[in-house]
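EI: anyone free to look at a 209-residue chain?
SC: sure, send it
EI:
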Amino acid sequence: MIIGRLRGEVAAVGADTVLIDVNGVGYVAHAGSRLLSRLDPGQRAELHIETKITENSITLYAFETDEARAWFARLQDVPGVGGKAAMALLDALTPGDLMDAIALGDVASVTRAKGVGKKLAERIVGELAGKAPPMGRFGSFGVKAAPGIASAASATPAGGARAEAISALQNLGYGPTDAARAVAAAAKINEGADTAALIKAALKELMPS
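SC: here you go
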């Protein structure tokens, strides 16, 4: 059985885990410090879950958004990146920041993650550069929480807008690496821009001066 989302009451918050009560059943999930700092016992919460099953254990990892969960899974496609390193990366960088760092070859930003040295950061950037950003389990992000439920999900997360802009530029004939770099550059000077605004700004980056 794969658990993809939990909605219930926060029963307890530990150093690196959260216990969430769903209809009387308590689930323990690993989480980053940024998420844990937003959770309080007694609070209702909705968590996106990545389930890891091995021969000896079942481990749950919790995230505020499905976008972060998707990046957690994508990062582990890189040799040498396990669950601990992937969680540290998403604790240090938002999905949008991570996309920009990869697109711009910004190894220094990737090394901000605890336990991620320069060599591993270079491997992450090299392995993921030019690849399309991960998508949600059902092809898109943005499942909204029910009223009264704590969640950071939004209709189009910042990284989701970047991904859509990159895809649009590729449909126009630009290569994935050029498209990603242009969108990353556009995002830096158009913070919070939606997909249409990012496409417009990125096209200016791609036009010869």
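EI: The chain has three domains: 5-63, 67-128, 158-201.
SC: 👍
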